[in-house]
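pasting for the record
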Amino acid sequence: MENASYKTPFHSSLWKEAAGSFRNVRYLAVCAMFVALHAVLSSVFIPVGENLRIYFTFFLSALGASIYGPFMALAEGFLSDIIGYIIAPSGAFFPGYTLSAMLGSFVYALFFYRQNLSILRIFLCKLLVNIFINVCLGSLWSYLLYGKGYFYYLAKSVVKNLLLLPFETFIMVLVFRTIRPLLVRMKLIPKGTKTKIPII
């Protein structure tokens, strides 16, 4: 672990460190654990309308991405979606949802990997995921699959995702506040990483 935190996710050393995660057996084991948990929890959801569901896997993707970085997060998103579909298929397989899972994990890594977290950072990250991935891309996938019109799905999805945003942000803050000190003790994130989460 070269650095406890970086000022920007685009620092070259951060990406070199993230690429090295594939050579770390502990990170590979942790990633496999998150894939397994994600696959199991992917079948647990609350239906709120046609093709609109509340899932509880987002915090697993966020937590995992904060540990092993953007490259392994992409792999975790891919494997989690594929294995989750095999375990609990829901309709025909569609690769767009696999892409969304990968992009979601990647965005979490950009905001959380080797970064000191704040409530504002967590909120902005979840806002970005909800709007651009869940709403914009999710509505496109629904349109391609079901054909009722892109804006029909967009209107339904944006309401759901904005209503869920405060709840999901609260869950992520709670998870990070609870688990990050443990991750430091387990040496899965650098010792100098701040475990307290300020507002800004």
